[in-house]
Amino acid sequence: GIADVLARGPQTPATLAKTLGADPTAVHRVLRALASVGVFAERPDGRFKLTPAAAMLRSDVPASLRSFALMMVDGYNWRAWEALLYGVTTGKLAFDHVHGVPLFEYLRQHPEEDRTFSASMASISGPENAAVAAAYDFGRFGTLVDVGGAHGHLLATILRRHKRLRGVLYDQPQVVAAARRSGFVTAKPVAARCTLAGGSFFDRVPAGADAYIMKY
Fold first, then answer.
1. Cβ–Cβ contacts within 10 Å for residue 4, how many?
2. Which among 3, 30, 159, 209 could disulfide-bond with 57, CB atoms 3.0 to 4.6 Å apart, if both were Cys?
3. What is the value of pTM for the model shown?
4. Which value, in Å, is the radius of gyration of the alpha carbons in the chain?
5. Between β-strands 41-42 and 48-49, what pairing exists: parallel, antiparallel or unpaired?
6. DSSP track, 19-88
7. Three-state DSSP class for 128?
8. Angle of CA points 57, 58, 61, to nearest 5°
9. Which of 180, 140, 177 is closest to 158 using CA atoms?
10. pLDDT (mean) for 179-183
């Protein structure tokens, strides 16, 4: 939450710590470490301010990467990285070894982490969707399936650009259910041309489309 607080203006670590309910010395050390790589900056008067990189951690900006940052340091990811040596020595997936199930099954079993993961996918798509939609002639197809399309941010951008194209958003059932509430593919300009389908792309994908896209 530091980036959101500093959006109001530079502050001292002590003031930040009081606002956030944290330890002033620890906050100062973390801020100095982050400032050394360009995330936040320390002013001569000891106050810290936002940098362009730190501004991406705000929750109230269109291109925010806050959700992606939260996902990267979520506990289940840390625990998988702790088993890196196991993965290297056995050639098997460390995540499956630690958690007993593959990533997407784990997320299905843990709704809160699943919501953060879906939001993280949305956050990294924001700066890229328009470029993807403009870089390829999707308009030559009748129907396009976005495989693993999360909340439909990319598909909605493509459909807005190509007015005759129809789309199918395909992801896990709980993700598709959340997509209905997110508003990307249910907005008026695209809702009538977009179908939502739930399932696992490890098993199948919707048949009969002219083209399929999978981002990352």
1. 16
2. 3
3. 0.69
4. 21
5. antiparallel
6. HHT--HHHHHHHHHHHHTTTSSEE-TTS-EE--HHHHTT-SSSTT--HHHHHHHTSHHHHHHHHTHHHHH
7. coil
8. 115
9. 140
10. 82
